[in-house]
Amino acid sequence: MRRTITFDDTDEARLSVLHLNGKTVDKENFIIEKNTGERVLTPAGNEVRLSEFAGLRKGSVIVITNDLPSLIEQAEYIGK
Q: Is 4 among the domain residues?
């Protein structure tokens, strides 16, 4: 079952969404996999800080950041 979650633009809300998906943040506020401690990467191979987190692509663990190129890529994906 796929679910869509919308959340406020707060660190608390971001952390809640991440925790629901098996992720958390490290001491430097980079998003990491809760089980392994490995930093999560965008499709472009960039590490993601909590402040940059905009969501996860529906049905996957692809991280969406709040920068314009990432949001445009997400909009193109949704449009397909």
A: no
Whole-structure pTM value = 0.73
Looking at the domain assignment, is residue 29 inside a domain?
yes
* CA–CA gap between residue 48 and residue 77 (Å, rounded): 20
Cα 68 → chain centroid: 15
- Residue 3 forms part of a structural domain: no
Q: How do the pLDDT tens digits run along the chain, 80 residues long?
A: 455 667 788 999 999 989 988 999 999 999 999 999 999 988 888 999 999 998 887 655 677 777 777 767 766 666 66
Helix (H/G/I), strand (E/B), else coil: 66:
coil
